[in-house]
Amino acid sequence: MRNVLSVIAKCILYVISLLPWWILFRISDLLYLVLRYVVGYRRKVIDTNLSLAFPEKTEMERLSIQKKYYRYLADILVETVKLFTLSSRQVFKRVEVLNAEVIRGYFREGRSVIGVLGHYGNWEMSALRFSQLFAEPRYIVYKPLSNKVADGMVKKMRSRFGAILISMKETARTLISFRGIPSMTVMVSDQTPPKSEIQYFAKFLNQPTAVFLGVEKLAKITNSIVVFCDIRRLGRGRYRCEFVTLYERPNETLSHEITNGHVAYLEKVIREKPEYWLWSHRRWKFKPDEINRSFD
């Protein structure tokens, strides 16, 4: 029964994705009202996160961010549905890339690149745009979903323009096996590790934050250049990306230097326009003292 419902939902989403942008954004306007005023979607989580991240702001300032966030969340939901059928030309038009030549220059030097991004702007649409940029292998690291139908939909959407999806657990093995071939690997850096896998807490938005060390470990193992994919929202359904080089010699960095560096850059981006980050995610559900006790 669950699979039948999933297939029905898949068909509905496909039909919705065929609608023109102007209708989708009218749907988003209604969805915003439902999310904020009718169901209060994760209101407590959002308000708590904003209070933790911005204790220096007034209650009215945080309320303003919350309101803008709900509008952005509604937009990002319909934009993501649109990605199932969005043409290559439309992706090209809607995500402006300022300096792809930086990455091509590293490829000419025989170097591979790890592109770090957060749940900021439209990371899904931007990942599709990255897939169009290069002939070299493009890998997208992802966490498989438990629902097989939903997982298949997401995998198909993300790989539409030639990107190769690899699960988080297979990333190291895959990149090591193709170490001599220049490639770009895109990784979302602000996911929360399972409690049993937490190895490090970085300071992020005033909080000790459990982070994956995958970017740093992979960069050192493969000697890959680390760049931050700085995605900015230009308007509804429109984005701009600039590649910012963080580390060209990963093996010369100190322990956790790369991790702290890309976390700090994401924080800088969020502080400039906080409404475009995923505030409804329970990012700080683990504390260092809880993890320490678990290892006693």
TrEMBL record:
UniProt keyword Glycoprotein, yes or no: no
Keyword Chloroplast: no
Pfam families associated with the record: Lip_A_acyltrans (PF03279)
UniProt keyword terms in alphabetical order: Acyltransferase, Cell inner membrane, Cell membrane, Membrane, Transferase, Transmembrane, Transmembrane helix
Residues passing through the membrane, by range: 12-35
Subcellular location: Cell inner membrane
MF GO annotations: acyltransferase activity
Name of this chain's protein: Lysophospholipid acyltransferase family protein
Taxonomic source organism: Pedobacter helvus
